[in-house]
Amino acid sequence: MTLKVEQLHVQHGAITAIEDLTFTINEGELVTIIGSNGAGKTTLLRALSGLLPVSAGSASWKGESILGKRPEDLVRRGIVHVSEGKAVIPELTVAENLELGGIWRKDKSDVAAATAEVLELFPRLGERLKQGADTLSGGERQMLAIGRSIIARPQLLLLDEPSLGLAPLIIEQIFAAIDALRHRLGLTVVLVEQNAMSALSIADRGIIINLGRVVGSGSAQALLNDPALRSAYLGY
Amino acid sequence: MKHKSPIRRLAILLFIGALLIAASGRVDQLRAYQGAQVAIFAIAISAIVLLTGYSGQISLGHGALMAVGGYAAVLSRTHWNIPYPLSFIIGSAVAGVFGFLLGIAAARLKGPYLAGTTLALAVGLPSLANQFHVLGGEQGLTFDAGNVPSWLGSDFSQYRWFFVVTVIAAIAVFWLLRNLLSTRYGRRWRAIRSNPTAAALAGINVGRAKVLAFTLSSTVAGLAGSLFAMLLGLVAPLAFTLTLSFTLVTGAVLAGVSNLGGSIVGAVVLVSIPELSNAAASHFGGSDKVTANLPGVITSVLLIATVLFIPNGPKMPKLSRQ
Amino acid sequence: MQIFINTILVGLSSGAIYSLMSLALVLVWRSTRVVNFAAAGQAILSTYIGYEAMSSMHNYWLSLPVAILAGAGISALVEALVMRPLAKRSKGTPVEAIAPVIATLGVLGGIRSLAGLIWGNNFIQYTSPLSSKGYTIGQTTIPFSPQNAAIVIGAVVVMAMFAAIFKFTRLGLALRAASFQPEISRLAGVRVDRIRTIGWAFAGAAGAVAGALVTPTSYLSPNSLDLLLVSGFVAAVIGGLESLIGAVVGGVVLGLGFAFILQYIGTSVTFSAAFIILVIVLLIRPQGIFGRRSGREA
Ligand SMILES: Nc1ncnc2c1ncn2[C@@H]1O[C@H](COP(=O)(O)OP(=O)(O)OP(=O)(O)O)[C@@H](O)[C@H]1O
Ligand SMILES: [Mg+2]
Fold first, then answer.
1. Closest C-alpha residue for ligand 1 atom 30
2. Alpha-carbon span C26 to C36, nearest angstrom
3. If DSSP codes are grouped into helix, strand and coil, which group holds residue A102?
4. Is the Cβ pair C95, B296 closer than 8 Å?
5. Has residue C136 been placed in a domain?
6. Ligand 1, closest atom to CA A209?
7. DSSP string over C25-50
8. What is the SS3 assignment for A56?
C-alpha cells in the first residue's frame, strides 16, 4: 500500500471539516471518494497536497510522511493535485499553462515527450496552443488542467471533481482520458467526485465520506450494486 | 469602564485635566511645551483612530489635513482679526469641509488606493504654500496667540498657557469622540470595519458612514493643526512634512489602532522619542546628522516592530474602550 | 511648433522616469498585492550606494550596475525580512488589510532616516559625465539634454529587458503565473515565495535605475525621491496597477501631461494636477487604462 491516511483531522477555524478519517490506497489503484456537498472531499485533497495544515493524524506516501510539506515540494515527489474548478491560469495561453506543469523539471526532453503525449490525448488543446486559456470551454479547461498535471510525471494524482459543471458527453471523454492515462502511466489516482456513477465506472474502489468521516467503502462493482448506498449517497 | 454616562466621563476627564494643569505649574517651560505637544498629538492620533480603527479607512495624509487646519486658523486670525479660539474653530471647520470632499472620493477607494491618494496629499499639499503668495512660501506665516490672560498672573508662562489650552481642547475632543463612538454611529463604523458587506446587507449606508467618519476625522485633525500653529507660533511647509503624517500613523499603530485611550500613550511615546534619542546621541557624542535622524530611525523601527510582532496593538489596559 | 516639440521631449524624459517608478510599484503589486510605499526609500538607498561607488571608482557608468544590484538586493531583503513574515503574522487579524501599507511606510521612513544618519540631510551632487544642458539646434537651446537622452534610452532598455524576461523565459512564466494564481502555481511546482522575492528584486532594480538616472539632473537627499513616488503611483494607477505595459504608458502619459501643464498653464498647478488626475482616474476608471478586473480590492 502506498497512500496511507490515519485518523486525519482538519479544521477550518472552528469548523471541523475532516474528522478521524482513515483509509489506504494501493499503488496503481484508482479510488474514488464520493460524498455530497460539504462532505470534506476538497478539504481532504487540499490537506494531502500541502495546501491546508492538518490538526491531527498522519498521512504518508510510500512510507514517508507527506504532512507539513509544501505543495511545491510534494509535486517534486510525484504528488500532483488538480484542484477544484478547472484549475488553469486564464491569463496565460494554453501553451504556457502546459509549460507551467513541467517548469520545475530538469529533464527537458522528457517534458517535451510528456507534452506531446498530452497533445495526442487531447488534440483540442493542440489546436489552441496560442489561445488564452480564458477562451477555452469548460471541458477544454479541465483537459488543460489534467494535461498540465501529467507533464509533471505524477505518481499519485489527486483529482477534485473533474466533471464539475460539464455536459455528459464531455464528462465521458474526460473520464475515458483519466482511465487511459492511469493504465498507460501506472498512476495511483484519488478521484473526488459527486458524479458517482461515472466515477465508479472507471474506479477500482470507492470510499464514501460524509461530514468528514468514512461512512462506507467497497469495490466499485459492489458499491454500484448496493441498493442502500445507491439511494442514500448515489441518489438514484 | 463599561456603560459610563457622558457626565461621569466628563467628570473623570476634567479631574485628570485639572490635575495636569495644576502639575504644569511645577515644571519648566520645556516640559510644558512637550505637554502641549502630547495633547496635540493625542488629538491628531485620535483622528486616525476614529478613521482607521473604527471606519476601517486608512489615511497617510493627516499631516496635510493638520496643515489645512493650521493655515486656515492663521489666515482667519490675521485677515479677520478674530480671537484665536475662534480661529481654531475655523481651522477645524475648513479641514472638515476639505475632509468631506476627500471623504467622498475616499469612500469609493480601497486599501492601497486610499493609502496612495492620501500619501500624494501628504507629499504635495504642503508644497502648495510655495506657490501661492498668500500662504507665505517657505517661511510660512506667523500665528500670534497674544499674551497670557492677565488674570492668571505675571508668572504664568506662555507655554504653560498653551498647555492649558491644548489640554482643554484634548478633553473636549476625547469626551465628544468617546460619546460619539458609543452611539449608533460608533456601532455602524465598527460593523463596517469588521465586514462591509454584512453591514450593507444590514441596511447601513456604508458610503455615507465612511464619508462622515472622514469628515469628522479631518475636523479633529484640523483642530490639532490649529493648536500646532499656536504652539509653534507659525505655519510653514516644513512644519507639516510627510514625516509628520508618518509620525501620526505610527502613534495610532502604537495606540492599538482602535483604542481611543491609547492615543495618549502613543502621543507620549512620540514626544519622548526625540528626547530619548537626543540624550542617547549626546551621550555617544553624536553629530548633527545623528540628532536629526535618530528619532526617525527609532520611530520607524518601532512602527515596523509593532505591526510585525503585535499587529493588534500593544496589550495595554483599554482605557476607554467599550 | 518648436515649443510644442520641446514640451514633448521634456515630457518623454520625465515620463521615462515615472514609468520606471511605476514599473517598480506594479511589479511588487503583481507579486504580492502590496503597494510598496518603500519603493522611494529603496531607490534613495541604492542611489546613495551608487553615489558611493562613483566616489570610489570615479565613473558614473560603472556606478550604475552597482546601484541596480543594490536596489535589487535591498528590495529582496525588505520582502524576505519584513513583508513575508508580516503576511503570515497578520493573516486573519483585523489589521490584515492595513498592515502592509503601514509596514512599507515604516520601511520608507526608516530608510530615509538611515540615509540621513549616514550621509546627512544636505544636498549631494551625483553627477553624470553627460551634460544636463540642453542640446543646441541652430541658435536655440532646447530643454532636452544628453542626460535626458540617457534617461529615455536607459528606461527603454530596462523595459525591453523586463518584457523579454516576462515573455520568453521560464522565470518570467513563473513570475506571471505566481502573480495571477499563486495557488495553482504552487500546485504546478512553482516556488512561489522565492518567485515573489525575485519579483521584489526586479522592482527594486527598476526603482534603482530611476533613482540613478534622474538624480544627476537635480540633487540627492534623503527625501529627494518622495515626489517621484507619488508620480509613480499616479502613473501606475493610470495604467491599471496590474499591467506592465500600463505602467509604462501611464508614466509617459503623466510625464507628457505634466510637461504640457507646466508649459501652457504654469508650475503652480503641477501638484494639484497630479492629485486631481489621480482622483479622477480612480473615480471614473478605477481599473485604469489597461486594467481588466473591476474593483480595486486590497
Ligand atoms: N476556507 C474555509 N473556511 C471555512 N470553512 C470551510 C472552508 N472550506 C471549506 N469549509 C467547510 O468545510 C466543510 C467541507 O468543505 P469541502 O469544501 O471540503 O467540501 P466538499 O466535499 O469538497 O464539497 P463540494 O462537493 O461542494 O465541493 C464544509 O462545511 C465547508 O463549509
Ligand atoms: Mg469540493
1. A38
2. 9
3. coil
4. no
5. no
6. 21
7. HHHHHHHHS---TTHHHHHHHHHHHH
8. strand
In angstroms, the CA B42 to CA B21 distance is 16
Name chain C contacts of B312, Cβ cutoff 8 Å.
93-95
Do the Cβ atoms of C188 and A100 come within 8 Å?
A: yes
Mutate to test the pocket of ligand 1, among A12, A46, A81 (most ligand atoms within 8 A of CB): A12
- B153 Ramachandran zone, left/alpha/beta (phi>0; psi -120 to 50): left
Distances (CA, A) of C227 to B119, C144, C261: 10, 21, 17
d(CA B182, CA B199): 17
Torsion sign (Cα): C128, C132, C137, C142: positive
CB contact under 8 A, C102 and B308: no
Q: What ipTM does the predicted assembly reach?
A: 0.91
On chain A, the residues whose CB falls within 8 A of the CB of C174 are 100, 103
Q: Region A10-15: what's the mean pLDDT?
A: 87
Topology adopted by domain A2-234 = Rossmann fold (3.40.50)
> Rounded mean pLDDT of A218-227?
80
The length of chain C is: 298
**Can you give the pLDDT at residue B3?**
57
Q: Cα(B85)–Cα(B91) distance, rounded to whole angstroms?
A: 10
Distance in angstroms (rounded) separating the CA atoms of residues B171 and C210: 48
Q: Give the three cell numbers for residue B209.
A: 458612514
CA-derived radius of gyration, chain A:
17
> CA separation (Å) from C219 to B60, B129, C155, C228?
26, 22, 19, 13
**CA pair distance A48, A66, nearest whole angstrom:** 7
Unique residue bearing C-alpha cell 511648433: C1
Strands A56-61 and A3-12: antiparallel
Instruction: With a cut of 50, say whether residue B301 has pLDDT above it.
Output: yes
Distance from CA of C235 to the nearest CA of B (A): 12
Q: Chain C residue with minimal CA distance to A52? A: C183
CATH number at residue C104: 1.10.3470
Q: How far apart are CA C102 and CA A158, in angstroms?
A: 40
pLDDT value at residue C268: 64
- How far apart, in whole angstroms, are the C-alpha atoms of residue A120 and residue A177? 11
Residue C208 lies in a domain: yes
What region does A85 belong to: left with phi over 0, alpha with psi -120 to 50, or beta? left
Whole-number Å distance between alpha carbons of B59 and B66: 12
pLDDT, mean of residues B19-37: 77
Regarding the beta carbon of A17 and ligand 1, being less than 6 Å apart is answered yes
Q: Is the CB of A118 under 6 A from ligand 1?
A: no
DSSP3 helix / strand / coil % (chain A, rounded to 5):
40, 25, 30
Q: Are strands A64-65 and A79-82 parallel, antiparallel or unpaired?
A: unpaired
Return the CA Rg of chain C: 19
| pLDDT per position as a tens digit, A139-148 | 899 999 999 9
Are A and B neighbours with ≥3 CB pairs closer than 8 A? Answer: no
Asked if C86 is an interface residue toward chain B (Cβ–Cβ < 8 A), one would say yes
| Number of domain units in chain C | 1
Helices B62-80 and B206-232, axial angle in degrees (round to 10): 60
Q: Has residue C249 been placed in a domain?
A: yes
Rounded Cα distance between A175 and A195, Å, is 11
CA atoms within 13 A on the CB side of C201: 15
The domain in which residue C193 lies consists of 2-122+144-284
Boundaries of every domain in chain A: 2-234
